[in-house]
User: Which sequence fits this backbone?
C-alpha cells in the first residue's frame, strides 16, 4: 500500500506537466486531453509492473502523447529554435530516465524541461 502514493503522485505530476506543455502551445483541447488520460492509464499499468520506473513516468507520458498526436494531428511540439528547414518536433531526452527535457536533436540543444514549454514566451510551436 505504501507504493500507491508515490505511484499516484508520479502519475498526477506527469499528467500536469504534459497538460502544461499542451496548454502552452494552445493544443489542450478535449480530444487531446483524452490522449493524455489514455497515456497515464497505460503508464499506470507499466509502473505497477516496474515500480523502479516511477521517476521515468513524466518523460514516458510526454512521449506517448507526442506519438499519439503525430498519428492524429502532426508533429508536436514544434521546435522553437530552428528557423530554417522543415518544421520538426522536439524530442524527449532522456528517452528513459529522470528529469526529462524537450530537446532539439537537430541543433543539439535542450529547450525546456517537460512541463516547461510555457516559459518560452515569444517562441513558436
Assistant:
Amino acid at each position: 500500500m505504501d507504493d500507491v502514493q508515490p505511484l499516484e503522485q508520479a502519475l498526477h505530476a506527469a499528467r500536469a506537466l504534459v497538460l502544461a506543455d499542451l496548454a502552452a502551445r494552445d493544443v489542450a483541447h478535449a480530444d487531446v486531453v483524452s490522449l493524455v488520460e489514455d497515456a497515464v492509464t497505460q503508464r499506470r499499468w507499466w509502473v505497477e509492473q516496474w515500480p523502479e520506473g516511477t521517476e521515468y513516468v513524466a518523460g514516458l507520458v510526454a512521449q506517448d502523447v507526442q506519438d499519439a498526436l503525430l498519428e492524429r494531428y502532426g508533429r508536436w511540439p514544434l521546435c522553437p529554435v530552428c528557423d530554417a528547414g522543415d518544421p520538426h518536433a522536439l524530442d524527449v531526452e532522456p528517452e528513459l530516465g529522470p528529469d526529462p527535457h524537450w530537446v532539439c536533436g537537430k541543433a543539439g540543444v535542450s529547450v525546456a524541461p517537460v512541463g516547461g514549454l510555457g516559459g518560452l514566451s515569444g517562441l513558436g510551436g
